[in-house]
Structure formats: C-alpha cells, structure tokens
Q: What sequence folds into this?
C-alpha cells in the first residue's frame, strides 16, 4: 500500500493505492493520524483491495474527524472496494463521490 | 475437474498474509476464477486467517495453520485447519449496520464479509484433529438467459398431434437448452440449482457427477430432460431426478422413456441402488417412482424452498416436504444394523418394502464411547437446510451434535437432518438422546457396504401442515403417519 498526500482547494487529499488489509492497515492509521484539516478526501482510484481491517481503519479515521468537527469523503471507488463498502453499509454514512472534483465540490 | 489438493502450511502469524494471498491468487486464476473473484477469495481467506491468529491462540504460542485448496468442477473449497482453542461460531458477533452509522463501530464485519463473498462458510470441530473453517466458492458461470416470451399462442399450446422423439445422452452443446427447459418447467425454483448454469451442466456431465439424458424430437427440439446424479460421498448409489418436460409436451410419455434409459444406464454401470425424490405438493412424481419399483424410505420435512410447478400448482410456493424413494439394483449382503428399539418395527417395514432383510443386531450392553467423535456439518444455504452426519460416535458425541444443531438454528437454517450410521451400535443407544434435543424420525437412506443411514430431522420453529402432504401409496401413508406421530412438537400444538 502507498499513500500520497496533497492539498487541493480547502481539502487534504490522501491517494491510497494497492491493498488495505490486516498487514497495511496499521500503516494507514499511522499515516492518516498525522493529517490535519477539516476536510479530508480519500482518493481510492488505485486501491484494489480492502478487508475488514482496512475498513476499520477508515472507520477510525472517520471517527477521529467527526470528534474534531472535520469530515471525511471518499472518491473514485471501483471494483471490489466499491462492492465491499456498499455491502458493509459504509456508503450510508460516508459520502462516496464518483470523482475527486465531485468530492471537492460536494463536501463531506 | 478434481485436481489434487494443494496445501500451504504457515505459522499463526499475520505477517504470512502476503504469502497466503500469493498462493490463493495463483490457484484461483489457474482454476478459472476471474481476477475479481480471486480477490474475493483472498479477502475471505484473510478474514478467516486473521480470526484464527487473533482469537484462537494464546499470545506467544506458535502453531501451524494448514490451508488446503481443493479445485472442483464447480469451483473450489478452501479449508483452514489448526489446533487452536475451540471456538463457538454462534458467539461470533453479528454485524449491525445501524451500529456502524450511529457508533462508527463494526463488530462482526470480518465474518459478515466472508459469508457475503463466499457461497458457503462452515465451521467444523474435528475432535483431536482440531478446528476447521471451510470456504466454498463457485465459478461465476453465467446462468442461462431467460428465454424470450413466446412469440405466438402456438408456443404455449399443448401439442396434440403425434410427436416422435428419441432418448439419448446429452450432447455438451445442448446444456443451454437444458437450462432453458428447466426454466420453462420450474422458472427459477428448481432446487438443483446447477441446472440453470449451462457450463456447470456441461462440466458435471464431463466429470461423471451427472449423467444427463434428453428426449429429442425428430426436428431436433429437446422436450424433456432427466439425469442420474452421482454424489462422491455416496459411492454405489445415485439419484434419479432433475426431470422436467416442456410444458407443451407433457403427457406424451417421453418421461417414461427417459426413466427407462436412466435405469438401464445405472444398471450397466453396476450401481447398487437408486434414489428418487418425490415432492409432496402433488403425487405425480411419487407415482412415477412407484411405477419403477421404488418404495418410500424417508419423509424429509421442509427440505427445500418451495418449487414452482408451471401449470401444476398455483399460489405462493411453501417449503416443500420430500418423500425419498429407493430401489436396490443389486441386492446387498445382510449387513448388521443397530436400530433403536422404539423404531425397530417401522425400520423393519421400510426394509421389507425395499425387499431387503438386513441383520437386525442388538447393541452390546457396554457401548462405552472412549474415542474421539467425528461430526460433519454440511449446509445448503439456497434451500436453508443443514445436515449433521455422525461419522464416528465417540465421547461427547451428543454434545457435539447439540452444538452443531444450535449453530445451524442460529444461522436460521429451517430444517436440520441428522444422519446416523446404522452399522454403529451407538446409533441404537444414542437415538433417544438426540430425540430429546427435538430431532424425530425421518426414515432410512440405504448406502453401499452396509453403511445405511438412519435419518432424524429437526424443524427450526416450523409447524408442518401434515394434512397437506400428498402421498401416493398405502406405505407412504403409513410412513407419513409414523413421522407425524414422532413429531412431538406438532403433537403439543
């Protein structure tokens, strides 16, 4: 798994690629814990795999941002990752946008 | 395809996840799974592996986990075997999607994903051999497309002019026609689900699990199908079924010709006996079985989801009770059977009707069960029933059965069947204990080499309407009355 971070408009964008699983989720948590900002967008266009460990780390991030008045949104979710997010009900509390532009415009 | 199993042995250490994924990805792609399905297999395997590593071993204990890949005609079976502490799947937390939204907590997420992404997930206690989690995934073969609506009135009007046809084994290219025929006859309600997938029909016929026969008109139209189903777990006996006729060609006698061909084929193969499953919504399939010399051997209540018989029954489909019929093609030797004393008269009647006289033996006074038990659980999620099979009765066997029953009930399986080997004296001595759990008599299922099974059944909060069960013979009535009398819960209501 790789994470690259950049600022765009008012948001911090984390582009996550590869696999977010039981091995890499701790790295994701560590990396995302250092990100500040009221609005965080996860760009998952290059993420091919997410397991429950990965979903939990996303949930933990959402929880942290909620508690500090921030927001989390996802974008460019496809394939198995999209299927897993939907079947688990994550799409009912996390805004999932079709593109980064839509996520930047739509807020979280 | 039944390739040799491939086994990976890794320590109970999450850092081996990458190796496990590479192992599974390669095997999944070799077996013909799509890249997407290969990822689903890895995901379910990760959840299983992580659960075992995190919950089944005390900190610091290093132990091997065997991961066994079995490629099969329909897909794959993946087994995780280990000697961690016994766990109780019924205590696994269930995912509450509302809790995710309101509390951002996701207990039970891993188990939920495993079950959602696999066709079957089972947990087996192997006694001294440890614990086993089994994942089953079918290849994503396309289901046959629904046929277009009939273009004209003629297409649905019964054929009244003489039709000549002949019966022969299925040609692989005709599999899609068979799938469509099943759809014509039953919509998507036929319990043998594989019949709707042309590739599965083709592959199962190729590997000998299925022997399909078709009735074909002179114009080349397939108007009926029947098959002998061979289960590798039941050597020497097979089931005749998967039989349907195009609604427009019913009454022409082609099913009789199919039955003759199938029975002749089974005899030529040297099969010992044949089962037929008769539905009880109507008596027609039972009458056919009787006509071919079969007799009732078990009444299995609420075994499958309701079957929609086009043009035979109306109204919403209820769960279907199945009457099992059997006929010996080769008379077996008189193996000893240990029957529970209180069921002996009925079991004798069943064997008498089957034309077989086993050696009724008395269980020894001291049947101490010192060894380990081996209890196997198989589930049929599409029909919502499970089967607990006592392969070996050892100490605590009743407890093992009780646990398996509770798991199946909590997983909302409607009916649970308990199969007990009649060659084992423990069947006679422990039957009462199983009945105290709520199981009651279903019948006898003959097997090769004296391994006949006594079948008990448990209904998970169901009340069968015994008056609505159709039977087609006096003995069928006798068996139905006996089963009803044994259903103590029904008697209380």
A:
């Amino acid at each position: 798994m790789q994470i690259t971070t950049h600022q765009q408009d008012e948001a911090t964008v984390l582009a996550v690629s590869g696999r977010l699983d039981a091995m890499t989720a701790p790295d994701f948590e560590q990396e995302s814990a250092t990100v500040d900002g009221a609005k965080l967008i996860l760009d998952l266009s290059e993420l091919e795999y997410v397991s429950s460990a990965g979903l939990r780390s996303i949930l933990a991030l959402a929880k942290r941002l909620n508690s500090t008045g921030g927001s989390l949104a996802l974008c460019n979710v496809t394939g198995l990752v999209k299927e897993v997010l939907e079947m688990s009900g994550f799409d009912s509390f996390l805004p999932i946008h079709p593109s980064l532009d839509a996520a930047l415009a739509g807020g979280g | 395809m039944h390739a040799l199993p491939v086994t990976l042995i890794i320590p109970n250490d999450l850092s081996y996840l990458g190796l496990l994924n590479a192992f599974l990805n390669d095997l999944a792609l070799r077996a013909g799974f799509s890249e997407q399905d290969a990822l689903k297999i890895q995901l379910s395997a990760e959840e299983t592996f992580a659960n075992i590593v995190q919950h089944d071993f005390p900190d610091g204990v290093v132990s091997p986990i065997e991961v066994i890949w079995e490629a099969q005609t329909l897909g794959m079976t993946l087994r995780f075997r280990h000697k961690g502490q016994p766990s109780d799947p019924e205590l696994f937390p269930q995912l509450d999607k509302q809790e995710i939204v309101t509390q951002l907590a996701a207990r039970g997420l891993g188990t939920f994903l495993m079950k959602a992404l696999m066709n079957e997930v089972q947990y087996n206690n192997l006694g001294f051999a440890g614990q086993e989690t089994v994942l089953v995934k079918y290849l994503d073969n396309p289901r046959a497309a629904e046929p277009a609506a009939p273009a004209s009135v003629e297409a649905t009007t019964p054929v009244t002019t003489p039709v000549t046809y002949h019966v022969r084994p299925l040609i692989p290219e005709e599999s899609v026609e068979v799938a469509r025929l099943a759809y014509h006859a039953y919509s998507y309600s036929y319990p043998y689900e594989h019949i709707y997938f042309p590739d599965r029909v083709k592959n199962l016929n190729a590997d000998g699990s299925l022997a399909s026969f078709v009735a074909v008109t002179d114009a080349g139209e397939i108007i009926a199908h029947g098959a002998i189903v061979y289960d590798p777990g039941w050597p020497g006996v097979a089931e005749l079924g998967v039989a349907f006729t195009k609604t427009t060609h019913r009454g022409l006698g082609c099913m009789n010709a199919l039955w003759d061909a199938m029975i002749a084929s089974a005899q030529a193969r040297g099969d010992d006996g044949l089962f037929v499953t008769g539905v009880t919504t109507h008596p027609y399939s039972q009458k056919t079985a009787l006509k071919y010399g079969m007799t009732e051997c078990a009444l299995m209540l609420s075994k499958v989801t309701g079957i929609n018989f086009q043009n035979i029954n109306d109204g919403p489909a209820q769960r279907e009770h199945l009457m099992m019929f059997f006929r010996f093609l080769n008379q077996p030797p008189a193996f000893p059977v240990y029957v529970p004393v209180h069921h002996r008269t009925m079991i004798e009647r069943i064997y008498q009707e089957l034309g077989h006289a086993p050696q009724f033996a008395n269980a020894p006074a001291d049947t101490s069960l010192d060894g380990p038990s081996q209890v196997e659980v198989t589930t049929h999620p599409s029909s919502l029933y499970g089967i607990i099979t006592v392969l070996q009765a050892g100490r605590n066997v009743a407890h093992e059965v009780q646990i398996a029953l509770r798991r199946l009930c909590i997983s909302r399986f409607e009916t649970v069947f308990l199969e007990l080997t009649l060659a084992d004296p423990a069947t006679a001595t422990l039957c009462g204990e199983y009945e105290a759990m709520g199981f009651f008599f279903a019948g006898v299922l003959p097997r090769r080499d004296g391994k006949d099974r006594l079948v008990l059944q448990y209904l998970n909060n169901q009340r069968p309407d015994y008056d609505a069960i159709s039977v087609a013979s006096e003995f069928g009535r006798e068996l139905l009355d006996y089963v009803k009398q044994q259903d103590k819960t029904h008697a209380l209501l």
Q: What stands out?
A: The longest helix of chain A spans residues 52-67.
